[in-house]
Amino acid sequence: MTAAPLAQQAPTHVRYLVLVWLCAAAMIAYTQRNTLGVVEKDMRKELNLTSVESAGIMSTSFFLTYALGQVPAGWLGQLWGSRRALALFSAICSAATALCAAAARLPMFIFLRGTMGINQAGLFPCTTGTIKNWFPGSQWGMANGFLTAFQQIGGAGGAIVAAYVAIWLGWRWTFAVFAVPGFLWALWFYYWFRDRPEEHQSVNEGELALLNAPAEAVLRQPDAGHDEAIPWGALLLSPALFWICFQQFFRGAGYIFYSSWFTTYLRDSFSVKLEAAGLMTSMPQWANGAGCIAGGMFSDWLLRRTASRRISRQGLAVVSQLACAGLTVIANRVSDVTIFVAIMSVGSFCAAAGGPLAYAVSIDMGGKHVRPIFSLMNMWGNLGSLSFPLVVAWMIGKDPKPSDWAPVLPLFAVIYLIAGLAWLGFNPDRQILPTEAERPAED
User: Fold this and answer.
1) Is the pTM of this model over 0.90?
2) 219 pLDDT more than 70
3) Domains of the chain with CATH codes
């Protein structure tokens, strides 16, 4: 029997194994970053820390370096490629996690958490660039949907596992245990992964033909070369990138409410006991994970049906964010806590669709500079995540009464209203930086 022509070969599915590895990286990262929240009380008691000092370790030291590290880490990812950069970032972050088990003083904890933040900053710029190289444009929403969903699985599921590990082994050993998967991931990923599909020995010509079809040629243009300068001036002055970063700032500010103040809101406003509040707090987070997958896959389906990113990316993002804002307004008028949490969970599901759509649009419009573009977008998203908890703390005061929480949910709704409207500020069918064909001819 003669072999089938190369063009007729059924494509291999190595790209899906790549996605599995990227989702594992996201899950490990969110597990490592959230471990501290589970053991915070025991750690604070043993080290004789104040609640302010503990909050600095948990939040500021990590998220500030995480936000500010987006651009340099993304640049390093473009310079080195995802294979080297992701393996290095994971190994250093895991080492810092493990060393938290031996840290005895506040400055060391702050340094180690800051180190984790800097290295995790490069994770998603690199994974976004990898998805661009390894998937056809019609699957970018799906791939990013699973990637963002596994962030939630790592955060919610990791917290459950960390609690049991802390009970069995103590809070210090929890850090050491959670560092191990990151080391193993880094070693195997560096051995198995390649930055481009054509460099991987398991990819056949059928899969390459799928990725390099004429319709993909413009979308999947090669990344900038290692010796090619990143046009930071043009990027920073781009109106389209401004609106992309603007929506990310407000989406980040809205998202963080569920993982920061939501439990306290339930306890203060509805007099919910702690054990019940913990379960109720997890519901919007699980809904968020489901919304990421559904939003990404539905966006790709719309793209295939309509061939329009105006509809499949921009339109869906506007509708989903405005739906979250509207549901929040409705929830604010509900007095039954079960119904309240259900409505807020549906809102979280809708809001979550914006995650994979923002990731996908950074690839759609990123051209040769996906990693630095995503880095700028994600930096502003994390600055939004830093800002909203502080604004809420200022609004409710030191010892809030139920009435002090009254303006918080309206603010939350306004945040998602602004996030949705910000998506109207750019054209997703164009690239952030004009291509050669779009540039005006010189006289």
Assistant:
1) no
2) no
3) 13-204 (1.20.1250.20), 231-424 (1.20.1250.20)
